[in-house]
Write a structure and sequence with these properties.
The structure is a homodimer of 343-residue chains.
Chain A (H helix, E strand, L loop, with lengths): L6 H17 L5 H7 L6 H13 L3 E2 L8 E2 L1 H11 L7 H12 L5 H16 L2 E5 L8 E10 L2 E8 L4 E7 L6 H14 L5 H13 L1 H4 L2 H14 L6 E4 L13 H12 L1 H8 L9 E3 L12 E9 L5 E9 L4 H20 L2
Antiparallel strand pairs in A: 1-2, 3-7, 3-10, 4-5, 5-6, 8-9, 9-10
Chain A binds a DNA duplex (30 and 30 nucleotides) through helix 3.
Chain lengths: 343, 343
DNA sequence: TTTAGCACTCTGCAACAATGAGTGCTAAAT
DNA sequence: ATTTAGCACTCATTGTTGCAGAGTGCTAAA
């Protein structure tokens, strides 16, 4: 998108974007001239604005309204115009306090992080737990709950626990289950969950094992346990998007909420955000979340002690307070990473 | 609310309520006369309606609109006017299918149940998991995750798993943790979680134990594990309430969503619904959910194999399709109970 | 007791004018 | 060559008015 905008044009564009972010109303030439203490008349600003519209950076809802930034303008804004605020002392304090005292256990921390993101940004907070699949296997355990009902508990080395009720074809005693557990724990020691999964499949083909009834049972059960999906995704502050005037229209809201309801879909889409490091910003139609509505997404990865990555961020309207939210997301990601690493 | 309404008045009230439920529009005298094939003129209906208004069963938004049922009318309606539909073959099939194949594990089943309730009723589905506290203790286990970090895993006899990361004051080896586990498992065998909790507290005062460093550690850790809150509450189909015309107003919606967001609060309020057996119906201000908005709640308990109870139901506008939803809730509760009991 | 008839009340809608914010263009000023 | 003042023009918004329609309440007849 090259375009060599004059410094003045950029300054004016910045003013417009910020004004619009603040007010959610189309902004007119005189407002810019006045508010921004540029020593320029509204007429001059008008000329510049016409140029900017030409370039596809502004649109007007109708002839006699002010102008509104396009997605392209937001893009330009966050890429090169924005002056990013620092995280205030207050915010830092709050983030630290809330993430720290969130209780223990990864899920608790992540949930509280999501809450915190939401309440600091005043938009919606989102946290995607590090994919279980890439965690390092720690421990597996079987419990006989009833006739032919076995509970499999799978623990990863950073404390995520997954459990699954497995129905088996013939009953097994608890003693046998313990033996099975020992066997599997040894076999999968030090592997990641996905490696473990492959290992199990490989092992099932092993002739020697096939004739050992107990062992083949063990493999079959653990295969189910290891296969479990795990879509830990924490979405907090959904109600806040109702505060945004652009979503007061029931229809658009319905759209957004509908999209969020299938977390599965969301998860899939979000995984694409995990690719890059640092703060990622997706504006409007760039967002993987929902093609339709004017939603923006600011995310950053965080890493756990064993190099698995999770995602955290904020979802809000395109007209989002980027300069305020970006540093918050950035800081929170760093903090969470640190928190999860000093074991 | 006594009141000896004539059969005709009741019939008319029923017609009005049902009309209003169907259309969400104030219903007028002629509509009632026409639609309901009563051999009555609109004038007669008008007289009756005036009486009903007198009794506080109807209100009119303004002079020349039709009339709208009050909460009192809904109450009367569900108590004595309603003719409850049967659950259709189709619905039954769907409920059974979805709850059955929901995958295994209590949480999965409950979540899917909530989804099913939502999609069948077209309102919001809610399921509150049986209180962990009253479950029978099954197994406790400790895993050393890092220096002074221990993961406690607590399993109840019907397969709910709770885990908690506990930070301890001095490091313990995995071997010692296993020994602790054995000790505790024996001690709490057959108790409910809440009994177990008391037992632990009692044991901590035991002199002999106090001098055994390991055992007192064990008790301290397990106390934390047993204390964990567990607010499993599954709320599905929130977006559906956006479809209701009475909530198209952004403000009211914000109210409702706000209320749902603190599940803690919700849980507390809902626990009061657990008291009684059978289908419970709360209309408007009777609901424990949210005093303000016109929301109704239909719930029923379900029981697990060890007599712990959970709650399940539907949240919708006061103007809810009671005759359709009530049997669905009833049937689902029975089915889930049966499903959880044939172990 | 029921109903027909009628006056009355109120909303909703459409047409219309007035308002005013904001633009685009032109011509003067710098 | 810019910048700016001035002015005509556009168009959403607001308020007015008038009218049609839905619904009521009351009265008097069936």
């Amino acid at each position: 998108m090259d375009m060599e905008l004059s410094p003045r044009s950029r300054q004016i564009l910045e003013a417009i974007v910020e004004d619009y972010i603040a007010t959610a109303e189309p902004v007119g030439s005189s407002a810019v001239a006045r508010r921004h203490a540029l020593t320029l008349s509204s007429a001059t600003v008008r000329n510049v604005m016409a140029d900017l519209e030409e370039l596809g950076l502004l649109t007007s809802p109708h002839t006699s309204a002010g102008r509104v930034p396009t997605e392209k303008a937001y893009r330009l804004y966050v890429d090169s115009l924005i002056t990013i605020r620092q995280v205030t002392r207050e915010e830092k304090k709050q983030i630290i306090r809330r993430c720290r005292q969130a209780g223990s256990g990864l899920p608790d921390i992540l949930k509280e992080t999501s809450r915190t993101l939401s309440s600091l940004s005043n938009y919606m907070g989102i946290v995607v737990a590090p994919s279980f699949i890439s965690h390092v296997f720690r421990h597996i355990e079987f419990l006989r709950l009833g006739v032919r009902k076995v509970l499999a508990i799978l623990v990863s080395s950073n404390g995520l626990v997954q459990n699954r009720l497995v129905e088996i074809s013939e009953d097994i005693t608890q003693d046998d289950l313990i033996r099975m557990g020992n066997y599997l724990n040894e076999m999968m020691h030090g592997l990641t969950i996905s490696q473990a999964r492959e290992r199990i499949l490989a092992e099932m083909k092993n002739e020697k094992v096939q004739y050992d009834r107990l062992m083949s049972q063990a493999l079959r059960i653990s295969q189910q346990a290891v296969n479990m999906e795990h879509d830990e995704i924490f979405l907090e502050g959904q109600a806040r998007i109702l505060d945004q005037p652009e979503f007061s229209n029931a229809h658009r809201m319905r759209e957004i909420f509908g999209a969020f309801e299938q977390k599965g879909l969301l998860l899939q889409l979000l995984s694409s955000c995990m690719a890059a490091e640092g703060v990622q910003i997706y504006i409007g139609s760039e967002t993987p979340v929902s093609k339709t509505a004017g939603v923006s997404l600011i995310t950053s990865r965080f890493v756990t002690s064993n190099n698995t990555v999770g995602l955290l961020g904020v979802i809000g309207p395109t007209r989002m307070g980027y300069s305020r939210v970006i540093p918050i997301v950035d800081y929170t990601a760093r903090l969470v990473s640190r928190l999860l690493n000093d074991t």
